[in-house]
């Protein structure tokens, strides 16, 4: 963390707790994400990763502090947080199945007034995802799982995110497709978009991220440089049985 010592976090979460029906799922979560880095949030199914994203997106009430670019999000609506550039690629894609690929992408830009920039971004997205260029007039729900995940990521990018949160990107996809999507995330990061990657596939996430947080039963139990955590015996034993 020494390289971050004099930088201001893009996202700073302190003592965040949240849950459902009066039962806490998250307990005093504290984490930081710095500009233009990729941070992995990893852990097994049921660890609370998606619940944390729901709290950050303001879909779920919480206690504690969520500061992004100097703005306290804790009292905001989901639309207000989205307006600040906090954009989520949800687990399961959640596309508009009966709309075309292009219409799905344009839905991502619905808040933007800069129509010329939207058009440029659409061209850029199609160059980034050539498969979507071929499918642009196709109904999103008729595509393969991998193509739908590309479409969900592309739709998020059309919102001009400052921080893009990607939830379980690899779920149910072939390894070659996941590899392509990780390359896209790396390119997005190089363009200056900050990425928070939530994954059950711990090895995949740690291989691509700069830093990582490991969650268990609603708590952060490990944190640090991803390249250090990937060699941590405790992490290896817990998540891939080494």
TrEMBL record:
Q: Does the keyword ATP-binding apply?
A: yes
For this UniProt record, the keywords arranged alphabetically read as follows:
Amino-acid transport, ATP-binding, Cell membrane, Membrane, Nucleotide-binding, Transport
Instruction: Give GO BP annotations, semicolon-separated.
Output: L-amino acid transport
The yes or no answer to whether the keyword Hydrolase is present is no
SMART domains attached to this UniProt entry: AAA (SM00382)
Taxonomic superkingdom: Bacteria
Give one GO term, molecular function aspect.
branched-chain amino acid transmembrane transporter activity
All residue ranges annotated as the ABC transporter domain in the record: 11-242
Stored Pfam families: ABC_tran
Q: Which family does it belong to?
A: Belongs to the ABC transporter superfamily.
Protein name per Swiss-Prot or TrEMBL: Leucine/isoleucine/valine transporter ATP-binding subunit
Recorded source organism is Candidatus Gallionella acididurans
